[in-house]
């Protein structure tokens, strides 16, 4: 069971005050039936075509290659996904006079629903990964604050300041290496979006090392809901989401007014967004080995293929192969911390003027990076949370519709 309360939509209807209660009841039942029913009759072909073109355009309009997998780019990607999902819901759950027999649409949307479950686990894992990046940023901010604290001073940086900054950077490096080797806190602390306000059981409130289970640093960060097991794999989830998407057949599209292709498009969009999130953010077993290809006769084929290949190219770069995540800001953390460690490694005291100037400049770059990460992480997490709940709502509507016997409202 997932500790998640599916979102619900409220609606209201008006009727004459003198209308009998039985008429009001029938009106409400009819309204609910219309809102939660997959099209009894095929929608107009231009509606399904418009959805597919819209999805393709949203993906094609993402920023250029230089910004791929940055915080800003990832937020734009999630915005595009949320828009696609809402338009997909509007297309799928239209009004109809009666819930007629639904094959092959029932089979296709049931398949999409199963794949969506895997995306929910990924959302939880990505949220944990964002928390991990926050921990990294805290260590980076300590080093930045120490080195930038005397930026207006005429005296050079002292040995105590350098040592404190190096201690923070060393702790950061250990944490990042720990995650890179698969033994970090990502595999230990997975929470569900639906349990954000619940208190952990009494026996989970303290970690085995005596630290608080929900705060602290490094190994003291523990799970509150254990929504993902230690054997859970982001790579396997990706394969489950994108592997063997049901290819829409001509007679399927003819029977559904093009909805078969729309469901396929939404499944492909779901995969590429999940793939990008796993690539960007630290996740448990975040290998990018899931093979994926889309059929060529759909509007979304080109932009999805371009995104998939672009992300793979990023993962193959020599300086990114062993990274904790392909998020641009994570790469900048690695570069900045490495650069500062090299500068301070052979520092002689008192510092020469030129060495002091280099350190102060590097410290300012560090300050700007910390600010950028701080400003971008919270909005991105809110979008991942929204993605989670929108998928839950859509899946609940699909299951509710498919569970109704044919011929009932």
Automatic annotation (TrEMBL):
Its main location: membrane. It is a single-pass membrane protein. Residues 10-23 have a biased composition (Low complexity). The chain crosses the membrane at residues 259-281. Keywords: Membrane, Transmembrane, Transmembrane helix. The keyword Transmembrane applies. It is found in: Membrane. The keyword Lipoprotein does not apply. GO terms for cellular component: membrane. Residues 1-23, 183-221 are annotated as: Disordered. Belongs to the ROH1 family. This is Uncharacterized protein.
